[in-house]
Amino acid sequence: MRFRNINIRNIINEAVNNEGIIVDIREKEDFAKGHIPMAINLPLSDIENGNIGLPKNKIILVYCENGGGSMMAARILANNGYNVINAVGGISNYRGALTKQR
Fold this sequence. Notes:
Radius of gyration: 12 Å
Order of helices and strands: EHEHEHEHE
CATH architecture: 3-Layer(aba) Sandwich
CATH class: Alpha Beta
Distance between the termini: 38 Å
Largest sheet: 5 strands, parallel
Structural class: alpha/beta
Helix content: 25-40%
């Protein structure tokens, strides 16, 4: 299966326009320090182990720190039948406000 790439700066608009789910594939500690608003956390290691648990009827938008990990996650998810959009550039290139967990 294939997936589409977008610039990380467009991730929220893309999610809202497509009623998609934003997935941060970084580890839980990094997610807690700051993530894109509306994102859920599903580490790449869980995706690689098949512990996905995402709905297949939604568009899944994945991002990571710099872009490499989300490319791997997008491939795995697409190969498992998910409709995936990969956010190129990672959170390090995101310019919007971040949500932090206390």
